[in-house]
Write a structure and sequence with these properties.
By secondary structure, this protein is an alpha+beta fold. It has three domains: about 5-195, Aminopeptidase (3-Layer(aba) Sandwich); about 235-275, no CATH class; about 285-390, Arc Repressor Mutant, subunit A. Helix content is about 35%, strand content about 15%. It has a five-stranded antiparallel β-sheet with strand order 1-2-3-4-5, sandwiched between helices. The protein is globular, with a radius of gyration of 23 Å.
């Protein structure tokens, strides 16, 4: 990802050296008042969050905001088209958020094909609402009780910004001309679930909520495959790796380091290394943890901890929702109630929407399953869940899973 410059700001990719600066922000209750987690009390939590930002992904365009060499926040899209921003409270009210987002939005229109950008803001976050409305975002819907933090519900306002018509025309022209098409670089490997931002909200809110430059950010769990590397000559590999590192002007990014390791081992790039050796399958501990949440009838007995485990536990419910069928809230509730024993179908319904497994109309009246191919971890979990049930049982989840045709 490139770096951008504005009149006052440097917008650049994240680095490991940004840890202390970001921990100062992520541990500040004012900055985190409307974030998707409580303030980070442990720097290791910030390290994991920063690691996920550095690794990014093919649909991530997150920029560090630096003012006079000091890191004051970050802005961009963690996964296109969902945007967000967080700033150090010392930088509020100085136009920094607007200056950064204006440059980033222009960059996104020029370098991506996304037709719109979206943002999810707490209705009490007046500052962020004014910021994004001033940038041209318009409200597309509202939802109540979208996040539950320690028994306290929070609501959402959804806003969107459509790609300008002139920019759509220009992007279409660029895509139609092979001579002007920019070469695509290798995709970054997906980020570890341990570094994702949890959609679970704060454990409590201040009695007088603070309005700051902070929007909600949600992250979906992504798989990571083990990739073996055979080195025939360790001495030669070490020499090439040392020379490659010495040629770097700064600490290489995760992707750059993967490419450097691959070239030192004799491959032309990381993609060639990845294609040459199939990943060695390893048991996923999250699948084992998710299985413990279900009884022998395939019913969920409790809501688990751990974002990836929660995500896996939603797939049995997804399979029971009829494909390509519009459902009322009452109809989808019947499915969710039948499949759980802990009595909170509202949490299940909300997370199905949050994880983009079920869509919801703007007025909140119609639900529909989002057709998709379950990823390998989900398929492994569904197979293991089916295997642990008796061959004949009366549970709600005993019928054959419905997968997209």
């Amino acid at each position: 990802m490139t770096s951008l410059r504005t009149e006052r700001l440097e917008l650049r990719p994240a680095r490991c050296s940004d840890l202390e600066a970001f921990h100062e922000i992520m541990s500040d209750p004012r900055a985190m008042a409307f974030w998707s987690t409580p303030p980070y009390t442990n720097i290791e939590t910030t390290r994991e969050w920063l690691g996920s930002m550095i690794e990014g992904g093919p649909r991530s365009r997150d920029f560090v905001i630096a003012l006079d060499g000091r890191v004051v926040g970050k802005a961009g899209v963690w996964q296109i088209p969902e945007s967000g921003i967080i700033l150090h409270p010392d930088s509020w009210g100085r136009g920094i958020a607007r200056e950064a987002l204006t440059a980033i939005i222009a960059y996104l229109w020029e370098t991506t094909d996304t037709p719109r950008l979206t943002v999810d803001i707490d209705p009490r976050n007046d500052r962020s609402l004014a910021l994004f409305e001033g940038l041209g975002f318009v409200e597309t819907g509202r939802a109540e009780r979208t996040f539950c933090i320690d028994g306290v519900w929070a609501d959402s306002i959804y806003l969107a910004l459509d790609r300008p018509a002139a920019n759509r025309q220009r992007r279409a022209t660029v895509r139609s001309s092979p001579r002007r098409r920019q070469p695509q670089g290798p995709a970054k490997p997906p980020a570890s679930i341990s570094g994702c931002t949890s959609p679970v909200r704060r454990q409590g809110r201040p009695s007088a909520p603070l309005s700051g430059d902070c929007t909600r950010e949600r992250m979906h769990p992504m798989p990571r495959d083990a990739l073996p590397l055979f080195i025939s000559d360790l001495s030669d590999f070490t020499k090439k790796l040392r020379l490659g590192l010495a040629a770097e002007t700064e600490t290489p990014s995760h992707l750059a380091l993967l490419g450097l390791i691959a070239r030192s081992a004799g491959y032309s790039n990381f993609q060639e290394l990845k294609a040459s050796t199939p990943p060695t399958p390893k048991p996923d501990p999250s699948v084992t943890r998710a299985l413990r949440v279900f009884d022998d009838q395939g019913r969920m007995t409790r809501w688990p901890t751990g974002q990836k485990v929660q995500w896996l536990c939603l797939w049995p419910f997804w399979t029971q929702i009829p494909p390509r069928s519009k459902m009322t809230e009452k109809e989808i509730n019947e499915i969710l109630k039948a499949g759980n024993l802990f009595g909170d179908h509202v949490v299940l319904r909300r997370y199905l929407v949050d994880y983009q497994m079920v869509s919801l109309t703007r007025d909140g009246s119609v639900y529909e399953r989002i057709e998709q191919s379950p990823p390998p971890e989900a398929l492994a979990f569904l197979a293991a869940l089916k295997a642990q049930r008796p061959s004949k049982d009366g549970g709600r989840f005993s019928r054959k899973a419905t997968t997209p045709s």
